């Protein structure tokens, strides 16, 4: 009996996907829920599992081809799920070696497998997985290991001597390009700047980090302070938390803060839902979880859906100042930057303080200059005197 392998529903805004990698060949057997094909959308990469045990009878959509949601990826033969093959006459040891042949890599400790995304990136860049070093204790190769290998100056390049290399843009990269340009063409984007003395925040982190880490099992970072400051500022300046839809302005009474995360495939913005209800510990824990999922390629549509305002931290890459582009349909984005010791005037005296430039890009169609400046000044005040954030008053 034959059944169709269908592209699953992946979210309201997603209408199509790209087949990035078939994990089974025609004739291969599989068990129920075993991943058969990897598909890439404009937001996430997902593996489509087998609805039942069987074998792959036909591939309808080849790798690199777009397919609509609900489209047929391939034909499955349920009756051939347990069909014996000549390989069954091999010894058990030979079967194991044959089965692991394509994904097995040698480490100093033991052989290990690699993830589908790691194999995909390795194939696209003509890299042998045997040459990639795993950062995991179990020796498993993931895509971060392959990306790290690519950036290594000691890696062996099979394209040495070629002056150009043409690689098709990923679905995610295409969408990033399209949306950033749409944001520039649609919104009236302006950026206002300020600087923050981070002394008080750094003092709190230094004195409370050990206690905080023992309680929540995560470090006390800067991001939780910024999320708290942003939420309080949004509560005071509601237009910055709003969006335009047709001829209406939608004011949001909830605070879902997007945290921009850079991955090898591009920028993704997972969402901290109801950030106003989260403690410092919950914010730091959720940010680490979302960042890990983003880098592992395991974000779900729920993780990426919504968002009323975004925070982008270019400081982790050493950026001193930037003008971030708003994440449509949102109307504002806060850009954090690196902290540098600078000479500033305090009480008519020149002192050395750890300073950070911050930037707010906003849609001038619904946010006036007074509101944008007021919002950023409020963020500055809350971070320079974080007692309000810590005490919750």
Describe this structure in words.
- The protein is α+β, with helices and mostly antiparallel strands and 393 residues long.
- It has 3 domains: 83 residues, RNA polymerase II/Efflux pump adaptor protein, barrel-sandwich hybrid domain (OB fold (Dihydrolipoamide Acetyltransferase, E2P), Beta Barrel), CATH 2.40.50.100; 67 residues, E3-binding domain (Dihydrolipoamide Transferase); 204 residues, Chloramphenicol Acetyltransferase (2-Layer Sandwich).
- The protein contains 10 helices and 19 strands.
- The strands form 5 sheets. Strands 9, 12, 15, 16, 17, 18 and 19 form a 7-stranded mixed sheet that branches. The chain has a 4-stranded antiparallel sheet with strand order 1-8-6-3, with no helix packed on it.
- A hairpin with a 4-residue loop joins strand 4 and strand 5.
- Helix 6 packs across helix 7 and helix 6 packs across helix 9.
- It is globular.
- The protein starts with a strand and ends with a helix.
